[in-house]
Amino acid sequence: MTAVVEKTERTVREQSARRDESRAPWVRPLVALVVTAVFAVPLYLVVVNVFKPGGHITGSPASVPWPPTLGNLKAALDRPDNLYWDGLINSAEITTVSIVVLAVLSAMLGHYLARTRSRFARVTLLVLLAGLMVPPQVILVPVVRILRLTHLMATLTGMVAFNVGYYIPFGVFVFAGFIRSIPIELEEAAALDGAGRWRTFWTVVFPLLRPATASVLIFLGVWIWNDFLDPLIILGPVGGTTVTVGVYRALGEHQSNYGQLFGLMFLAALPVVVFYFLLQKHFVKGLTGGAVKG
Amino acid sequence: MTALQGSLPGTPQGSPRSARKSARNRRANLGYFLGFGAPGLLFYACFVFAPLVLSVGYSFTNADAFLPNTKFTGLHNYVKLLGDPDFRMQLRVTTILTLIIVIVPNVAGLAIAVLLNRNGRLYRALRTVFFVPVVLSSVVVSVVWQAMLTDGGLLDTVLGSMGVRHPPGWLSDPSIALYSVGSIASWQLLGFCTVVYLAGLQGVPDELLEAAAIDGAGRWTRFRRVTWPMLAPALTINTVMLLITGFKTYDYVQVITHGGPGTGTTATVAYGVIQTGFTENKTGLASAMAVLMLLIVAVVSSVVLRLLQRREVEL
Question: Nearest chain A Cα to B252, which residue?
Answer without folding.
Answer: A228
